[in-house]
Amino acid sequence: MSAEVVSRLVNLLSFAALGLTVLLIVRIRLEGQVRAFAWQSLILAALSMLIAVYSGSLELFGVGIALFAVKVVLIPRVLDRAVAKIGLSRVAAPYLATAPALLICALLVTVSFYVMAPVAESNPLPTADALPLAFAGVLVGFFIMVNRRRAVTQILGFLMLENGIFQLALLATYGVPFLVEMGVFLDVLVAVLIMEVFIYHIKDNFDSIDVGELGKLKE
Amino acid sequence: MILASLLLIPLAAAGLLALARGRKTMEMLHALASLGTLAAGAALAAQTSSGAPLAAGDLFRADSLSALMVVIVTFLGALAALYAIGYLRAEPDAARPATVRLFFALFHLFIFTMLVAVTTDNLGVMWVAVEGTTLATVFLVNLRRTRASLEAAYKYLILSSVGIALAFIGTSLLYYAGAKAGELAVQWSALHAAAGSLNPEVARLAFVFILVGYGTKAGLAPMHTWLPDAHSEAPAPISALMSGVLLNVGLYAMLRCKIIVDGAAGPEFTNRLLVGMGLLSLLVAAAFLVRQRNYKRMLAYSSVEHMGIVCLGLGFGGYGALFGALFHLVNHALSKSLLFILSGNILLQYHSAEIADVRGLLRAAPWTGALFLAGIVALIGLPPFAPFMSEFLIFRAGLERYPWAAAAALALLVVVFAGMLASVNRMLYGAPPAAIAPGDRLRMWLAPLAANFALLLVLGVSLPAPFEDALRRVLQILGA
């Protein structure tokens, strides 16, 4: 595979990954949002495999498999279970309506091209062109966490932000060392499991998973 | 060998405690493990006192900076561990054996993650461990299972995880800068050696992410918003460790990266950011300390303040200010753990964390009250206690290098001083409410706090040579 082809494929996949993050804003039903995350993780797994083949890195191949297991299979299953158990409130309630939220996303993508310029330009790898797209995913994920009130959507925002960071490292340096990558997957998995427990606690205590209800601790 | 036992004792203890049955067994195991960790920590400090780092494979490496942190973690860890035994016996919310088991097991997991963070040479593993500290403590914050503690724990989990995710971008960028310079490693020692050849622009960008990310864990404003909630809702021994120790671990992670970035791009950039962040933290803390109504939140905001002061010292730069910053980090750890443990005693006696509900503390509980007063006097920077000396060192250097920032910070310190003293005065004097049973709670379990008090006093009036040498060796790593 030539560098040219790889570069184009990487751009395409990165664009699709960012698109799925933005889809989280448009999608209202929580099940659909979990699907969006699973698809995005699948794209990232494909991206790791592609770069693994191109660079001949066996470690990266392993990272792709682990990513598939944790983020395409395990975490969506955990979240589906949580959504099913909560039952009632399946509709994600944003603070900002869809149209202004999309406008902010566009702004964030622009900012990301500006911030990542020094890294993208100085980077000789064929994957570097897509760096701003990955960073935009981080920013949009962060925005989703702030904008959405449902605990599940907040967790999805966090996961997509985390996906963006994984992608960033993947594109900039073909990923960080294997051991570190595994440690990060473990942390994310444990974090999601803890968050799941918290969803149930919040549901039991407040009879909703609207994190806007959490406003007792004030000065 | 020492490194291995230092890490394995708390890890094994966490595993064993998760399986243990019977309160007596758990308490015994918990106490033994804490003392064992303390002994291993002391042995590590003794081993590194020659100045040569102690390494175990590629993964672990403990130099003098690590040793300083290990001593803080293990010493205050043991102190809080001993008090925790008594506290859990007296705390009605911890009556269930399952709660006690969860507490003890997570306690040692928490200590383990902090020790990994400060002894690993791998910046990626350090990141994983720092995130691990959040995951280990989140259920401890929610131990009481009230709405307030649930909210605090959820906020803590989400905000810390997002913050630390940003630190991972910074870590990746440092790795990238290293890869470009031909040094394909996330080893701190390798990046440190190659720092001169890293791309300064990428290094600066990395530091911005690192500062925001680990700054969240260190409780620096404006990312501090989770801190007063989590620190005030956690049970007292955990508050003591989160405020006195965990914040320092966040600061340590930032400092490690700063050393590399300074080697690549010069200290000017990172120093300015730190001074700005320190000043902002002081400002926010002062604003919330003026009329604080909850004494645990008061202590939590005071941690934001003191982390700000340490940042100012690190940012001012130069031998005097850096020495003061490290010294202050130790002093804050000693005084804040003392105060948070005492806050547990006050809570057990008055059943309220509101300052307005606590009256006549000196009469109702003379030992608790007197130690609390001494701790506050130390914390607000009055002689003869050690924080006075460290703040003096920091601001003497600051007034030379950044006169406006230092002057503004001093003005804010006066505000904090007045605010905290007024709050504490209301607690100490007067007649205790009739419903309060007089007498110190858990008097025997308070005895170890004498060590904090003695150290704060001794370090305040003299600078023992071994302590000064230890800080001097750390300063060499910081390049001063």
Descriptive report:
The complex is a heterodimer of chains A (219) and B (480). Chain A is mainly α and 219 residues long. Chain A has one domain. Helices cover 79% and strands 0% of the residues of chain A. In chain A, helix 1 packs antiparallel against helix 2 (30-55), helix 2 runs antiparallel to helix 3 (58-86) and helix 2 runs parallel beside helix 6. The termini of chain A are far apart. The mean pLDDT of chain A is 88. By secondary structure, chain B is mostly helical. Chain B folds into three domains: 1-121; 144-265; 277-480, no CATH class. Chain B contains 20 helices and two strands. Chain B has helices spanning 2-19, 23-47, 64-90, 97-119, 123-141, 147-180, 188-193, 200-218, 227-233, 236-265, 267-289, 295-316, 318-350, 361-364, 366-379, 386-401, 403-428, 443-446, 449-461, 465-477, and strands at residues 54-56, 60-62. In chain B, strands 1-2 form a two-stranded antiparallel sheet. In chain B, a hairpin with a 3-residue loop joins strand 1 and strand 2. Chain B is globular and about 70 Å long. The model of chain B has no long low-confidence stretch (mean pLDDT 94). The interface between A and B is large, with 41 and 46 residues.
Number of strands of chain A: 0
Query: How would you sum up the global shape of chain A?
Result: globular
Give the amount of beta strand of chain A, in percent: under 5%
> What structural category characterises the helix and strand content of chain A?
mainly alpha
Intertermini distance of chain B: 31 Å
Discrete helix count of chain A: 7
Our count of helices of chain B gives: 20
Which structural category do the helix and sheet elements of chain B fall into?
mainly alpha
Q: List the domain count of chain B as a whole number.
A: 3
* Major sheet description of chain A: none
Oligomeric nature of the chains: heterodimer
- Amount of beta strand of chain B: under 5%
Write down the Rg of chain B: 21 Å
| Spatial strand sequence of the major β-sheet of chain B | 1-2
